[in-house]
Design a protein that fits this description.
The structure is a homodimer. By secondary structure, chain A is an alpha+beta fold. Helices cover 52% and strands 8% of the residues of chain A.
Amino acid sequence: MLKLYDFLMSGNGYKVRLLLAALGTPYERIELDITQGETRTQQFLQRNPNGRIPTLELEDGTHLSESNAILWYLAEGTRLLPEDRFERAKVLQWMFFEQYSHEPYIAVVRFWVHQGLTAEQRHQIDEKRRRGYEALGVMEQQLEGADYFVGGRYSIADIALYAYTHVAHEGGFDLSGYARINDWLARVSGQPNHIPITQA
Amino acid sequence: MLKLYDFLMSGNGYKVRLLLAALGTPYERIELDITQGETRTQQFLQRNPNGRIPTLELEDGTHLSESNAILWYLAEGTRLLPEDRFERAKVLQWMFFEQYSHEPYIAVVRFWVHQGLTAEQRHQIDEKRRRGYEALGVMEQQLEGADYFVGGRYSIADIALYAYTHVAHEGGFDLSGYARINDWLARVSGQPNHIPITQA
């Protein structure tokens, strides 16, 4: 059986849980508390030298890390990853956008707020929020006349972007002015077998 | 003919140039000076709403952005992207590692140093360098007993990681203690049709 090294609060972990639920794939979940250094032990660093969850352990004992690479691996050959070469590249475009222009601002601010801000974080938070809103602006524009991010169909690009967008308010982001994003969030949460981020 | 919106100093742009040179694919290069706001014009934002190079324009006028998504699109069906499902996911793992754990530190510090540090950048640079060295440590470990990052063969995972690693010293990173990385850099620069980052 697949094993998922995970942390319940993590949107990156949630992406994988959400996809596995959509696909109906059984798996064993191992919770590691990243705030207590549980991903920095020698044992875990052998599974992922970069010391991060989510990390997937396949049945042959090999490991795969980086949430969006795991999504790609698991979605290959399913309805959640298009077959067309250009659409597949567009799925990757939005997943790289998520990791470079979205997660470092929207996810990081949420994590800071949850943990309680340090003085250095208080110093940086306005700039992080500004760049988070830039990412939301790019998403709002992309959703003009489009129900989903790629090819008019629900895909792992939507799963990747949904994970931290739907909890952006926990980091103090106000999404009330983003009508298309709100409609899209409702379309994603209305998918069959949807689970909340709080569900293990 | 393919058109590449690019900025010569950019390692993200260089990834695409390096791959196109390896594949012998002709293209037109359009230089946009990111330091002069040339990727933030209304005209360019229609090509990439996220306002970044590299952006690839296909022959039908559609656009693809995010350097590693462009690499994937162009390498599909060539020797530079493995066919095996797990190896393909591993290529993505290293490309997401590059964009999340490597580029934001190693590339960003190089850019800051080139531009001349602001007071705020001077405040942040030690922490950025610390995280850049963490990424180099993960790479050095992965290259133990391995000539390349995935499957023992040169792939777009190597191209993605080479782009900013080989110019890390321009940001003040000292690579002298990273013997395996230095050997790997030499293997990459020894590939057929290799071009330097300074070559348009």
